[in-house]
Amino acid sequence: MQIAIVEDDPIVAKAVSTAMREAGHECTWVPDGETAIRQNTLLSSDVVVLDLMLPKIGGLDVLRAARRGGVKTPVIVLTAMGAVPQKLEGFEAGADDYLVKPFAIDELLARIEAIHRRSASRPAMEVEAGPLQLSLATKRVTIGGRSIDLTPTEFSILELLVRYNGQVVTRKMLCEHVWGFDWEGPTNVIEVHINRLRGKIDRGRGESFIQTVRGRGYALVID
Questions:
Q1: How far apart are CA 43 and CA 127, in angstroms?
Q2: Is the pTM of this model over 0.90?
Q3: pLDDT interval class at 67 (50, 70, 90)
Q4: Sequence-ordered list of residues with C-beta below 8 angstroms from that of 50, at least 6 positions apart, any chain
Q5: CATH fold for domain 126-220
Q6: Mean pLDDT, rounded, for 39-58
Q7: Helices 171-179 and 189-201: crossing angle, nearest 10°?
Q8: Do the Cβ atoms of 48 and 74 come closer than 8 Å?
Q9: pLDDT at residue 3, as a whole number
Q10: Ramachandran angles phi, psi of 129, nearest 5°
Q11: Across the strands, what pairs with 36?
């Protein structure tokens, strides 16, 4: 089983990772929410153990973005936030289980194995927002049944926007997602790709799905 630990505390992450590997599972550690989304952690794992109080992007926002994108991977929230309203918020965001710190490693392992058994299928290989659908396996994009041809860069940009549907995606996030580092080339490279992407997905629309948030970045807005 491939288990991802999204946790900013290296001591907790090391303890959990060691226990998972000793139990025969593969385990990866992701230290913050932004990296979890950029690396598609929830999509590429069998089970995710997710802290809520993460730097850069909080755990609930990571979870909501994944669920909006159609990701079905089982998620166990592991957090010090144990009040009933906080648990309810976690489940409403899409958590499958909720374990409060401090916790017993054996109990966490038992919950991971139980939730994996209950999971009927592998993580979804498609993400969607309204009429917009992306196949991560074939890199095929359709909107309202209409097929759209995108370049690999355009597809990567659109994928990140879909995962953050309704939220601002910064220039830095786009650069790191597409190229793996902060872009140091021409300053308008992102704008050029965004404009081309708009021309392909906004055909027949008066207002673009991709909105510019001045001074911050871009946001895909699809109800």
A1: 10
A2: no
A3: confident
A4: 6, 7, 36, 59, 62, 63, 75, 76, 77, 78, 95
A5: Arc Repressor Mutant, subunit A (1.10.10)
A6: 91
A7: 90
A8: yes
A9: 94
A10: -145, 110
A11: none
Predicted confidence (pLDDT) at residue 189 exceeds the cutoff of 70? yes
In CATH, which of 3.40.50.300, 3.30.1330.10, 3.40.50.2300, 3.30.1360.110 is domain 2-118? 3.40.50.2300
Helix (H, G, I), strand (E, B) or coil at 131: coil
Residue type, 221: V
For residues 125-146, give the mean pLDDT: 87
The pLDDT mean for the chain works out to 87
pLDDT number for residue 145: 84
Q: How far is 62 from 104, CA to CA, in rounded Å?
A: 25
- Cβ neighbours of 182 (radius 10 Å): 11
Surface-to-core class of residue 88, CB atoms within 10 Å of its CB (0-12 exposed, 13-18 middle, 19+ buried): exposed
Query: What is Dmax (Cα atoms) for the chain?
Result: 56
Q: For CATH 3.40.50.2300, list the domain ranges present in the chain.
A: 2-118
CA distances from 61 to 32, 104, 164 (A): 12, 26, 9
Angle between helices 59-68 and 84-93 (to 10 degrees): 30
Would you say residue 223 has pLDDT above 80? no
